[in-house]
Amino acid sequence: MTDPVLKTQGISKSFGALRASRDISIDLFPGEIHAVIGPNGAGKSTLIGQICGTLKPDTGSVQLLGRDVTHETARARARVGLGRTFQISSLAMEDTVLQNALLGALGASGRPWRFWKDALNDKDLRATAEEALLRVGLEGQARMRTAELSHGQRRQLEVAVALTLRPKALVMDEPMAGMGAEGSKRLTGFLDVLRQEAPILLVEHDMDAVFALADRISVLVYGEVIATGTVDEIRSDAAVQEAYLGEDA
Amino acid sequence: MIRETYVNALTLLLLVAIPLWAVFMDEPFTITLMTRAAIFAIAAIGLNIALGIGGLVSLGHAVFFGIGGYAMGILAHHAQTYTPLAEWPFLIDGTKSMPLIWLVAIACSALAALVIGALSLRTTGVYFIMITLAFGQMFFFFAISWAEYGGEDGLSIYIRNGFPGLNTLAPIQFYGLCFVLLCLVLLFAWKLSKSPFGLALNAARQAPMRVETVGLDPKRVKLVAFVISGVITGLAGALFADLNRFVSPTMFSWQTSGEIMIFIILGGVGRLFGPVVGALAFVALEHWLGGLSDYWHIYLGLLLLVIVLFGRGGLIGMVSGREAVHD
Amino acid sequence: MSLILLIEQVLNGLQFGIMLFLMAAGLTLIFGVMGLINLAHGSLYMIGAFCAAAVAAASGSFILGLIAALAGAALAGALVELVVIRRLYDKDHLDQVLATFALILIFSEGTRWIFGSFPLFLNVPEFLSGPVTLPGGIEYPLYRLTLIVIGLLVALGLYLLISKTRLGVQIRAGENDREMIGALGVDIAMLYTIVFALGAALAGLSGALVGAIQSVQVGMGEPVLILAFVVIVIGGIGSIKGALIGAILVGLTDTLGGIFLPEALKLFFDPSTATSIGSSLASMAIYILMAAVLILRPAGLFGARA
User: Measured between beta carbons, which residues in chain B are less than 8 angstroms from residue C97?
Assistant: First the structure.
């Protein structure tokens, strides 16, 4: 078996008395989509924070491409090749769609200290940005203000910005949230292809998408991974039935 | 609605036409007023880079204005009294040369902006406002207690400093110099706003977390912007000192910081010509209202309130509407 | 340097700090509950001082002057909140800074217009003038000592108000969750006006009390305002306890620095150099203190972690 691209090893994190992550070990292999599901308050955001570097685990380690990044900042992890999309869009809303994509390209270029040349006329930046927009199907909206995009389109833009970084691994926080059925279906199809390029750790509420996409699923309850397995294994797992799926069924 | 480009062009035209008209009519005071406006505009363009693009509400930009002023005052003071500025570790003399003075003003402002920025950017929001205001006050009190350079009374420089090839004593020539610098600074601010750095700074204002996730450091981007901003305001301070041939702690005062901010708001936040239009409007108001009433600040205050509460785009926003999408 | 002088200076620093606390408490309360940065707080300080000076001069009673200061500043505060400030709560910090800066211009020039540019004088009342002998034989002005006592009483009152009363419960709720207090059926608009007026009254009181030992003039409020900001940065935004401790730290640093830095430097330099460097350094001491706190604890000593 190949080495995992992304791996957490026994990470724990507490906020006062609240143990938001308990000894979580999760890995992500090339070409796969690994979904993390769990009820509200299960600690999904805390887990993402630790993987992406906005939170420091109390114990345990995070490895990216075989490198220990536990003590690295979010931007250092981004430079190593970790792409991220946010649950609540964090785009530059007053800027155009193209400018947001250009920012990603600029980050990937690692050369922001240029004060004279027009960013929009920079061939390399522009090519990277436009390619990413094309891939998520936003090429027609490039000149629109981001604030004018629909909810679903902002999700697409989030993905596009992550793509400009040519990530080696992706962490996506509920990319389907608030999307219509059509948009969801389209994004599902896109992620299905994207996994070959960069494996995806997918935190998602939309069960149809999770069951359609995931190679493996981990179920997070009260900060703990209670089960990891294929779709079928998870569907038939008694503990999961009781703790989580039971509520919906 | 008039397009913003036309408003900008008209502003530039006024900056050229009014002083020429004043030369023709022999109205040197008008030239002085225009010089004042041009210098204020440079100071405000500086602040606008931090404030308008970077979202850094600095209420301490008087620090840089004052440092620029004192750089001129101290260097010229030593030159006119024929005393060296320092004898150790090596001899440094004062100077009456503007380019040299500007270089010193720029270097000192950059250093101060680096230190103040690095400290202030450890926090955000209201903390940042309060801290920049406090650092401004620190320099103000320092200048007051610095007896060697005039303390509270400040320093008078008897003859305006020189610029190679120009007679800076002629109001129109000094104005021309300030106008050229204003144009250069405008050009730089315009290029910067569209540059890769401007893109990153603009995003750092709106979504710092996003900047972080693409692998850039939003704080460093803001710090560099703060330094650039301070340098430009510092240059304006040196020019302002030369205009008045006088520097005093007032240049460091919180009112000065507030006024530099007012120029931007009057004209329009984040707009290229906002600071220029605002500075022109301010000097005009100061002149006309100041002539009508000793208490003209009341009217300035009311105008400012109206703009903040009802017309966020400033004067440019009122005539040309919402800012167009850049492309 | 004698012990007596030291104690005297410590008391002076304490008195200065306590008066700063009255300013900082109002500012931090207003920021905590309404999320507003109010530059015009110094104007309310000035209004309090002018009300006290005018009424005390007309009536001959210092106490009436103090009452006028409290009432005048609270009234001005409530009025400003109703007309201008409440339009600023949902605006960004820049708008708040500018609008309240505009208010400073209006208040300062308005006061100059009414009272002229010359300072007014407010005398220390007869029954509080003169020195008092403290244990250990230290003579200290009774009025300054009274200021310390009044300030500490106000601090205690604020503590009781916030921890024990219904209004206090609402204020704390407002600091934590603005939407929540609406849901609890509290009249938010009313609460905001009351909190703003309370902060204004504290500023007015402080202005009047200090007015009796300094001159009462236009522009007296802003330097105090900026020092109050330093206090808040040091203490942490929204924390009354932080405001009290920050204020005392700033008061002591400023007063003691002004006395001891030049003295200490005389050990290394000749007296005139020491005095000039020392006084320059002393004028910067509280800002250096602020910078140190920023480096060690960016959210202030008692601030919530951002």
Answer: 57, 59, 129, 261
Task: Write the CATH number for B92.
Answer: 1.10.3470
Element (H or E) spanning A179, and its range?
A: none
pLDDT above 70: residue B203: yes
B 211-230 residues inside an 8 A Cβ radius of A? 211-217, 221, 224, 228
State whether CATH 2.70.150.10 applies to domain A1-81+167-249. Answer: no
Which positions of chain C have pLDDT values less than 50? Answer: 305-306
Residue B176 has pLDDT above 90, yes or no: yes
What's the predicted TM-score (pTM) here?
0.93
**B295–C113 C-beta distance less than 8 A:** yes
Question: Cα–Cα distance between A26 and A48 in angstroms, integer?
Answer: 11
B238 belongs to a structural domain:
yes
Q: What is the ipTM score, two decimals?
A: 0.91
Interface of A with B in 7-66 (CB under 8 A): 52, 54
Asked if residue B326 is part of any domain, the answer here is no
Using the beta-carbon criterion (under 8 Å), do B196 and A125 form an inter-chain contact?
yes
Alpha carbons within 13 angstroms on the beta-carbon side of residue C1 total: 13
Closest CB to B203 among A83, A92, A108: A92
Which chains neighbour C (Cβ–Cβ under 8 Å, 3 or more pairs)? B
pLDDT tens profile B128-164: 999 999 999 999 999 998 888 999 999 999 999 999 9
Complete domains list, chain C, with CATH: 9-118+139-296 (1.10.3470)
Q: Tokens 């007896």 correspond to what residue? A: B147
Residue B162: inside a domain: yes
Instruction: For residue C118, give every residue at least 6 positions away whose Cβ sits within 8 Å of its Cβ, in sequence order, or none.
Output: C217
Total structural domains within chain B: 1
Q: Evaluate whether C37 touches B129 at the Cβ level (below 8 Å).
A: yes
pLDDT at B326: 41
Angle at C141 between CA C140 and CA C143, to 5 degrees: 140
| Count of residues in chain B | 327
Write out the two tokens for C62: 């210092």
